[in-house]
Amino acid sequence: MNKYIYYSMLLAMVLIAVDNSASAQISHDSVNTVVIKVGGIGCDGDMTIIKKKLINQEGIDEVTFTDKKNEASTFSITYHPAIITEKKIHELIESAPCCDNPNEFPYKAKTVKPKQTKKLK
Known about the structure:
Elements: H1 2-27, E1 30-39, H2 44-55, E2 60-69, E3 72-79, H3 86-94, E4 108-119
Antiparallel strand pairs: 1-3, 1-4, 2-3
């Protein structure tokens, strides 16, 4: 029985060590900024819903509106690529509900400027 306890404790220590090294890797990664044009926006409430959905996501540091024309707006998003991908950011935007009807998901996201990479110090 003691042999099983020993191996269980050893396994737990290894898992903790692996988890800590993965966390250290993520925290020292680079930060990217991407500009995404979002179509299907009907009002300022839609922009707020999208921003709130993005900023509450782990790995996203900053979300700003950079331009608004008709039913499209441009967002500048600063994120950690080791935690969240640009594709996932697009999915989050497109899965945000419309402010007028929470059962509608009218937004279409398209990257308009390539990402800028900045190393963290």
